[in-house]
Amino acid sequence: MIFGRSERGKPPVEPVTFKILVAGGFGVGKTTLVGAVSEIRPLRTEEYLTEAGRPIDDISGVESKHTTTVAMDFGRITLREDLVLYLFGTPGQERFWFMWDELSEGALGAVVLADTRRLEDCFAAVDYFERRSIPFVVGVNCFDGSVRYPQEDVRQALDLDDDVPVLLCDARDRGSVKEVLIGVVRHAMAHTAQHRQTVTT
């Protein structure tokens, strides 16, 4: 099926659409993740890093990074003919966090992208989604040359609840990113079902 159309003789399928946020620290790979999986040309709002921002933007560990997202990244992926995800990558720097409330409105769930070399950079995103009860998974972006820690070690370091999935991924690889997004949808659905059961009992 082509998005928005149906095969001849079959009634059109109206897809269910969900909004997923991609959050995490500066330089963790959010823009790369959205670009790797989006079936449309992703919308990007990147600007070059400047000397004026050098005292604010900590690029230790990501010295080769020359641009930063100042508003959001946007992409779309069709998981099934009846299920479409809209992806919104949040800006990673603290001075742009005021946009998170706007972007998170109506979100089904989120991916908190983590870099084990700078794990503390994703604490703010974890805290944000926990405080707002937005279901999220942690995607550990396995950068070339970085140490790969067991998922349970990452869980303990971030002080995550037992039900929060921790998934290893490569933000450059479409198949890897797709598995993370499927994980978000499954976790969010389970979270919603559990919440409904709690309300009715």
Descriptive overview:
- Helix 4 links the parallel strand 6 (136-141) and strand 7.
- This protein starts with 15 loop residues before the first strand and ends with a helix.
- It has a 7-stranded mixed β-sheet with strand order 2-3-4-1-5-6-7, with helices on both faces.
- The chain is of the alpha/beta class and 201 residues long.
- The longest helix has 27 residues, at 174-200.
- The chain is 28% helix and 26% strand.
- The protein has helices spanning 30-37, 100-104, 123-131, 151-158, 174-200; strands spanning 16-24, 43-48, 67-80, 83-89, 109-114, 136-141, 166-169.
- The chain is built from 5 helices and 7 strands, in the order βαβββαβαβαβα.
- Mean pLDDT is 83; it is low at 1-5 and 49-57.
